[in-house]
Each structure stands twice: as structure tokens, then as C-alpha cells.
């Protein structure tokens, strides 16, 4: 409660400052403040819930990381992806990638009684458009594009979920196996080469993220439009 009181007090001061700024501009017959600029914030707090990110994390400008989210070394959140934690924590391990338009979030509860937070391990690739809700994905996994993992589901180490698959609440993909379909079903065992390739794939995406990160300055340049 005290934290929220400070938040609202700070917001009031910021809004007062903006109002004074607009008053001053009006007095100079300057209406530049009416420009409609994007209010999107790639990283956003929710009161006392704040994202915690390693120094080398890449969050694309059009992505969203919101609330009680922990992003470890080498994580990349790509364009249009959303990682949201407004009720329970979301934790993402090192060198994991959340690709374009994927959504990762927790829930208030699960029908299975498991924890309603969302935990993704290290060297995991989450494909484009996938939805992960209050589930657990262990290290060295691939979640195919467009897949859906529902509350309380578990994907064990060195496993692959094929694109477009649906893992129901409380469902489980065992280690060393490939599963796919809707409803999801066992496809086959992974070969040693396929299991080893999971880490290589995640590292390749991490390297690509570094190249994208280098294209963005630490601070935005929107203020230059108002000069």
C-alpha cells in the first residue's frame, strides 16, 4: 500500500509538470504537445511489480515486458511479443528466445493445483505466435510456432513441441521426445543430434539478437521532434 501511495504521488507530480509545460507552450502560441506520439513502452512496471533483466537482454521496441518478469542472461524478446506478469511471476532462463508475436503470461490459478506462475528454462526457443500460459518449460526445449501450452502443463528437458500443437492444462511432454497435434500426442523419440541441435538453435538466435540490439541507442530520440 505504501508503494502504491508513492506511485500515485509521483504520477500526480509528473502530470502537474506536464500541465505546466502545456500552459507555457500555449502562452507562446506553440501547440506542439498535440502531436500524437506512440505511448508504447517496451518495459513497463505495474506498481511494485518491476521487470528484472540482465544487462545483455534484447527487448525489441515493439515487444512488451510487463510486471514481475525475470529475464536472465542472453534472453531475447522479439518484435510484437508480450511477456506479461500482473498476477504471478514469469521467469525466463538464459539464452532463451521469445519470438515474434508470442505471448507468455502467468495466471491467478490453475485447474490442476500447480503453481500459477510461468517458468521457462535456459536455451529454449519459443516460436512465432505461440501462447504459454502459467506453464513450465524446462531447459533445452523447442516450442513450435503457433503452439498453445495451457495452465499447469509441463515440457521436460530436451523435448520438442511441434508447430500448432495444443498441450492441455496439466499435460506433460516427457524428456527426449517430440510431441505434436491437437490434441497433442507422442510422435517419436529425439535423436542425439536433434537434442544437441536445440542449444545450437537457441545460441544462433541469441547471436542474431545482439546484432539487432546494436542498432538501438540506449535512449529514444522522440524528443528531437519537439525541438
Automatic annotation (TrEMBL):
CDD domains xrefs: LbH_gamma_CA_like (cd04645)
Origin: domain of life: Eukaryota
Alphabetical list of InterPro entries matching this protein: LbH_gamma_CA-like, Transf_Hexapept/Carb_Anhydrase, Trimer_LpxA-like_sf
PANTHER family associated with the record: DYNACTIN SUBUNIT P25, GAMMA CARBONIC ANHYDRASE-LIKE 1, MITOCHONDRIAL-RELATED
Protein name: Gamma carbonic anhydrase
Origin species: Diacronema lutheri
Amino acid at each position: 500500500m505504501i508503494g502504491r501511495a508513492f506511485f500515485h504521488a509521483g504520477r500526480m507530480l509528473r502530470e502537474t509538470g506536464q500541465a505546466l509545460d502545456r500552459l507555457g507552450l500555449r502562452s507562446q502560441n506553440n501547440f506542439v504537445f498535440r502531436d500524437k506520439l506512440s505511448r508504447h513502452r517496451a518495459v513497463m512496471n505495474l506498481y511494485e511489480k518491476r521487470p528484472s533483466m540482465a544487462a545483455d537482454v534484447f527487448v525489441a521496441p515493439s515487444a512488451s515486458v510487463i510486471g514481475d518478469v525475470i529475464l536472465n542472461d542472453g534472453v531475447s524478446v522479439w518484435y510484437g511479443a508480450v511477456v506479461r506478469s500482473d498476477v504471478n511471476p514469469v521467469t525466463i532462463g538464459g539464452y532463451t528466445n521469445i519470438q515474434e508475436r508470442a505471448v507468455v503470461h502467468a495466471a491467478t490459478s490453475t485447474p490442476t493445483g500447480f503453481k500459477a506462475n510461468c517458468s521457462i528454462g535456459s536455451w529454449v526457443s519459443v516460436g512465432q505466435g505461440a501462447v504459454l500460459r502459467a506453464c513450465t518449460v524446462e531447459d533445452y526445449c523447442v516450442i513450435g510456432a503457433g503452439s498453445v501450452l495451457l495452465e499447469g502443463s509441463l515440457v521436460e528437458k530436451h523435448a520438442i513441441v511441434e508447430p500448432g500443437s495444443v498441450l492441455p492444462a496439466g499435460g506433460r511432454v516427457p524428456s527426449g521426445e517430440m510431441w505434436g497435434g491437437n490434441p497433442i500426442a507422442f510422435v517419436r523419440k529425439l535423436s542425439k543430434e536433434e537434442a544437441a541441435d536445440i542449444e545450437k538453435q537457441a545460441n544462433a538466435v541469441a547471436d542474431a539478437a545482439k546484432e539487432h540490439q546494436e542498432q538501438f541507442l540506449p535512449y529514444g530520440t522522440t524528443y528531437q521532434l519537439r525541438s
